[in-house]
Amino acid sequence: MDEILFSPVAYVVNSCNESTHPDNIKKLESVIIVLPEYMAALYGVEKCEYLDVIFYMHKHERVELVGKTLSGEVRGVFASRSPFRPNPIGITTVKLLRVEDNQLYVTGLDALNGSPVIDIKCNIY
User: Fold this and answer.
1) Is residue 57 part of a domain?
2) Rounded Cα gap, residues 65 and 84, in angstroms
3) Confidence at 8, pLDDT banded by 50, 70, 90
4) Is residue 106 included in any domain, yes or no?
5) Total number of domains constituting the chain
6) Range of 36's domain?
């Protein structure tokens, strides 16, 4: 299998340093700090009410191909939102609260503090 390499475009800052129920993390306000070399990519982002944030789940080390969902149902990892994936990539739609320079203030993000952000996309409902 070919290796795929990504470099972060930003990092997550919030008060959640350990894995917990996603709903607990989503209630927090998080800041996505975009790296200086990608600041031009923020042009017009304030017009987006919602953003899709793709991030690397940097603290997950195990893989479970089959497991229980939050409701207790057993499913394969591709039929769930389990963090224990072959490639620990997360994607979450967040509400953009405000933009200050290279900082995006959001709610709804279930990434842990320090998570590298791979990409940010405007989500048009």
Assistant:
1) yes
2) 8
3) very high
4) yes
5) 1
6) 10-123
How far apart are alpha carbons 67 and 2 in whole angstroms?
Answer: 27
Asked whether residue 4 is domain-assigned, the answer is: no
| 106: alpha, beta or left? (left if phi > 0; alpha if psi -120 to 50) | beta
More confident residue, 49 or 27: 49
**Distance between CA atoms of residues 121 and 78, nearest Å:** 22
What does the pLDDT read at residue 17?
74
pLDDT of residue 107: 95
- Rounded-to-integer distance, Cα 109 and Cα 99, Å: 16
Query: What is the domain-level CATH number for residue 92?
Result: 2.40.30.70
Using DSSP's 3-state secondary structure scheme, residue 118 falls into: strand
**How far apart are the C-alpha atoms of 79 and 69, rounded to whole Å?**
9
Query: pLDDT tens-digit profile of 19-33?
Result: 666 666 777 899 999
